[in-house]
Specification:
By secondary structure, this protein is mainly alpha-helical. The protein has 2 domains: 7-195 and 305-335, HUPs (Rossmann fold, 3-Layer(aba) Sandwich), CATH 3.40.50; 223-300, Tyrosyl-Transfer RNA Synthetase, CATH 1.10.240. Helix content is 52%, strand content 7%. It has helices at residues 20-30, 33-36, 45-48, 55-71, 89-98, 103-107, 110-117, 125-139, 153-169, 223-231, 248-261, 265-270, 277-304, 306-335, and strands spanning 7-12, 38-43, 79-83, 145-147, 186-188. The protein has a 3-stranded parallel sheet. A two-stranded parallel ribbon has the order 4-5. Strand 4, helix 9 and strand 5 (186-188) form a beta-alpha-beta unit. Helix 8 packs across helix 9 (153-169). 39% of the residues are buried. Bound molecules: tryptophan. The site of tryptophan has 11 residues, from strand 1 and helix 8. Tryptophan binds next to strand 1 and helix 8.
Length: 340
């Protein structure tokens, strides 16, 4: 840390295995960032408990998320990898930010509106304040860039608003000079990342909470499971691929194959014109199987070696704490708390 490089930060909820949407749409494209930027990636277990979790599964999934990051190519020697709850400053800054966020702006978050509807009359307060904790995650590290998908853009906007509000409200540093309290982060929209759609409903994004069986291909699926899911992928009522027009289901399969192979869409499409859908499904399954197998095996290998993983997490949390505590200390001072 402190290399003068711009800081890129992202996080994943350790609620389930990662899927090919996470991989092709995000993680795979971050590999070049490891040299260009200072990278901070973590598992947000504090965010996960905004909905009910089984404690044992949460612990396992947290290890699994970190192991997946590494297996996907996030080299722990080049990035800071850690678990959110092991760095207390996240929860501490979240409280200060909560006191500067309004009920109105949090009520406008579309993810909150969607998720809270599923909870009947008992809506956990954490679901409401979730985006403030996310803002704390980002602002604690002087983050410049956050690779975000469409669904998180509004939360990043809120983060920027909170940063600017705090900068305006507390313009003077604890040593008396005018300096911004927070770096205001920008979204980082990747040009290459694929938007992977559900295999069962290709109009909607692939999501681990999709209840339709086979909708989502996980990075820990077996070869057989992967094959089955692609074979059953929803296409359309036609049977042959044409050059002029492809339905969303066919497009999704071509796109998935192109991303795994680092080819462009048209190059893949050209191989299937005039062919039956079945070929595309089978080939895409095989491409996915070949790409996922080494990731799955590496993840399993890492998960078996808990002392290795614990070692990575220790290095990660120490680096993260050192950095986060400095920012939190300055926030506490500017807000008026007594520091020893
Ligand atoms: N809310 C994000 C998601 O559900 C996860 C997240 C938490 C995050 N904190 C973050 C993402 C900070 C980027 C930066 O996907």
């Amino acid at each position: 840390m402190g290399s003068g490089k711009k800081i890129v930060l992202s996080a994943v909820q350790p609620t389930n295995a990662m899927h090919i949407g996470n991989y092709l749409g995000a993680i795979k494209n971050w590999i070049p960032y490891l040299d260009e930027y200072e990278c901070i990636f973590f598992a947000v277990d504090l965010h996960s408990i905004t909905v009910e979790q089984d404690p044992k599964a949460l612990r396992e999934n947290t290890y699994q998320s970190i192991a997946s990051y590494i297996a996907c190519g996030i080299d722990p020697a080049k990035a800071t990898l850690f678990v959110q709850s092991q760095v207390p400053a996240h929860a501490e800054l979240a409280w200060v930010l909560t006191c500067h966020a309004s009920m109105g702006e949090l009520s406008r978050m579309t993810q909150y509106k969607d998720k809270s509807q599923k909870h009947g009359s008992h809506i956990p307060t954490g679901l409401f304040t979730y985006p403030v904790l996310m803002a704390a995650d980002i602002l604690l590290y002087g983050t410049h860039l956050v690779p975000v998908g469409e669904d998180q853009k509004q939360h990043l906007e809120l983060t920027r608003d909170l940063a600017e509000r705090m900068n305006h409200r507390y313009p003077e540093s604890s040593t008396g000079e005018k300096s911004p309290l927070f770096q205001v982060p920008a979204p980082m929209i990747s040009k290459v990342g694929a938007r992977v759609m559900s295999l069962q409903d290709p109009e909607s994004k692939m999501s681990k909470s999709d209840p339709a069986p086979g909708a989502c291909v996980f990075l820990n699926d077996s070869d057989k499971e992967i094959e089955k899911k692609f074979k059953r992928a929803v296409t359309d009522s036609g049977s042959e691929i044409t050059a002029e027009e492809q339905s969303s289901g066919v497009r999704n399969l071509i796109q998935i194959q192109a991303s795994f192979l680092n080819e462009n869409y048209d190059a893949v499409l050209s191989r299937y014109i005039g062919k039956q859908y079945g070929y595309l499904k089978l080939d895409t399954a095989n491409v996915a199987i070949n790409a996922i197998r080494p990731i799955r095996e590496k993840t399993e290998e890492i998960l078996k070696d808990r002392s290795y993983l614990d070692g990575i997490l220790k290095v990660g949390r120490e680096a993260a704490r050192a950095r986060a505590e400095k920012v939190l200390n300055e926030v506490y001072k500017r807000v008026g708390f007594i520091r020893q």
